[in-house]
């Protein structure tokens, strides 16, 4: 569960009808922009294989597991699930057939594929493992988080199994897939979810290999924090603490593994706590600026900043602190998180990933906003929500008329964050089938959930509500913040009863499962419809 119940959150679409209508306009823009992104990239799918090139204009065009499959195509699928449902199944099936038929190299792991020459590109085992870890964590994990289990969750499991079948880095705790924090951190993110979802001990055993290696060797040997690269034979590392993507994943990954061990009451929980706790304290000591925001990279020994600029993944980093607060009950972990959220409004128009010409990519904005939104679902700060509004508008303005953003794999991150922003505005509610003239927003409070609906012309379909996805699909006891998770703003428990009332609707009492499956709604196109949904008995 969040640190605050959704009804206690002052955030989200504001109070009166006019503000709800404005919020509905913003949500509609976000949904429509994600569909524009989908439609913008559809023409570039390879006609023979259904696979997506990693970047437009490349010669030869390449499909890569770490870019095409990890960062772009999954968000085409998620965009289709929310805005063009009829495209979802055919896109998924065609791509999987193309991937399995053409790209598999060793241990069931996909490799780079030349779409022009229709041939595999030999990249070596380490790159295969890297590609699979990226594909699983950045591509398939978000699908599991927002869509629930499906063939994509089975694909995620098969990639994890292939990675550990191929693991070739010997340590005192068993073979690891890599000697770098990125791959090992990504696999922790994946394995923790797989264990929660399935209860299968091999996933936990593999996660423990990584946890043991880092808690008992890497962290003690690198001044309390992860090294980016560690030589397990020489017992030494490069001394770099990376606090941005391609390295920061290990920090929150270790906190998730600790949460599992704590819930299990295992001996490892007691053994993991000191190094994990020290890691967080040391990272805040040397890795943040005066506003409490993480920089990109520091020297683990001296604290010297080795790569300046604020990390666009500052929010991802702080997921670990919120997780530790939730699992231990020690709210002092939240102090640095709140400081960062209190100060993020100073970063309006910040150039997150500056280029040499003075411009910046949408990608840095997308990551920074994503991290903030998930933190804000646990720790609401009004000025930080205002910052999200500003930055989302800045990101939206970067989309081209054809629906693409910059024409590379990072375009998927635009759609991901647009959908996260839309679901913040709607409190997790959505309309199906989506149409560009639809408007939806919601706010939650002590009186329940107020949902505002409108359309430009008559429409009929379903209004769907959000389940507690962390438990409903992943089997987690608590909604620990997780990289690539979609925030849970207002959720409905399947077996609880809820009362639904609204203009022109017959009052009804339904199960939460009925709300999750969707209730039938008709919109006249002549004015808004307001619904009130609250637990039965209030």
Give the total of beta strands.
Answer: 16
Strand order of the largest sheet: 10-11-16-13-14
Tell me the CATH architecture of one domain. Alpha/alpha barrel
CATH class of one domain: Mainly Alpha
Structure description:
This protein has helices spanning 17-41, 68-83, 85-102, 125-147, 151-166, 181-198, 201-221, 249-264, 267-287, 314-328, 334-343, 362-376, 382-396, 411-426, 469-472, 512-517, and strands at residues 62-63, 113-114, 119-120, 230-231, 236-237, 240-242, 295-299, 305-310, 430-432, 439-445, 448-454, 459-464, 497-502, 508-511, 519-523, 529-535. The longest helix has 25 residues, at 17-41. It is 47% helix and 13% strand. Strand 10 (439-445) and strand 11 form a beta hairpin. The chain has a domain at 169-332: Glycosyltransferase (Alpha/alpha barrel). The chain is an alpha+beta fold and 538 residues long. It is built from 16 helices and 16 strands. It is globular, with a radius of gyration of 23 Å. Helix 8 packs parallel to helix 10.
């Amino acid at each position: 569960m969040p640190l605050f119940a959704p009804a206690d959150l002052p955030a989200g679409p504001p109070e009166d009808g006019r503000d709800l209508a404005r919020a509905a306009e913003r949500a509609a823009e976000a949904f429509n922009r994600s569909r524009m992104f989908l439609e913008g990239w559809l023409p570039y799918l390879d006609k023979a294989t259904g696979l997506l090139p990693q970047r437009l204009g490349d010669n030869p065009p390449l499909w890569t597991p770490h870019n095409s499959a990890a960062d772009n195509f999954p968000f085409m699928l998620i965009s289709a699930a929310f805005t063009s449902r009829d495209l979802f199944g055919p896109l998924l099936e065609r791509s999987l057939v193309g991937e399995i038929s053409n790209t598999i190299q060793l241990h069931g792991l996909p490799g780079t594929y030349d779409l022009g020459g229709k041939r595999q590109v030999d990249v070596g085992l380490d790159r295969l493992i890297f590609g699979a870890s990226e594909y699983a964590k950045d591509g398939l994990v978000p699908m599991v988080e927002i869509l629930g289990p499906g063939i994509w969750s089975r694909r995620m499991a098969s990639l994890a199994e292939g990675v550990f079948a191929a693991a070739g880095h010997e340590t005192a705790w068993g073979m690891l897939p890599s000697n770098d924090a990125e791959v090992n951190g990504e696999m922790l993110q994946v394995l923790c979810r797989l264990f929660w979802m399935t209860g299968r001990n091999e996933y936990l055993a593999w996660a423990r290999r990584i946890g043991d290696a880092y808690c008992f060797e890497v962290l003690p040997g690198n001044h309390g924090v992860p090294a980016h690269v560690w030589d397990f034979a020489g017992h030494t590392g490069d001394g770099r603490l990376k606090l941005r993507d391609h390295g920061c994943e290990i920090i929150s990954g270790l906190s998730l593994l600790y949460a599992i061990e704590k819930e299990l009451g295992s001996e490892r929980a007691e053994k993991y706590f000191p190094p994990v706790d020290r890691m967080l304290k040391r990272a805040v000591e040397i890795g943040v600026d005066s506003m409490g925001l993480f920089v990109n990279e520091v020297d683990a020994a001296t604290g010297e900043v080795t790569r300046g600029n604020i990390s666009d993944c500052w929010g991802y980093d702080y997921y670990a602190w919120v997780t530790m607060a939730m699992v231990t009950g020690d709210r002092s972990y939240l102090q640095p998180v709140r400081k960062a959220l209190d100060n993020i409004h100073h970063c309006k128009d910040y150039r997150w990933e500056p280029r040499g010409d003075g411009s910046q990519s949408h990608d840095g904005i997308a990551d920074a906003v994503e991290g903030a939104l998930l933190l804000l679902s646990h720790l609401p700060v009004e000025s930080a929500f205002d910052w999200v509004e500003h930055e989302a508008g800045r990101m939206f303005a970067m989309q081209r008329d054809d629906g693409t953003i910059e024409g590379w794999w990072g375009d998927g991150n635009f759609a991901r964050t647009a959908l996260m922003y839309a679901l913040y505005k709607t409190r997790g509610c959505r309309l199906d089938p989506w149409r560009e003239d639809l408007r939806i927003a919601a706010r939650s409070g002590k009186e329940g959930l107020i949902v505002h609906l409108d359309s430009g012309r008559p429409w009929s379909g379903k209004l769907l509500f959000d389940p507690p996805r962390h438990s409903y699909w992943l089997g987690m006891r608590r909604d620990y913040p997780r990289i690539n998770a979609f925030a849970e703003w207002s959720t409905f428990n399947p077996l609880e009863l809820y009362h639904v009332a609204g203009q022109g609707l017959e009052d009804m009492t339904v199960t939460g499962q009925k709300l999750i499956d969707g209730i039938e709604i008709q919109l006249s196109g002549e004015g808004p419809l307001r619904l009130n949904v609250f637990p039965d008995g209030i």
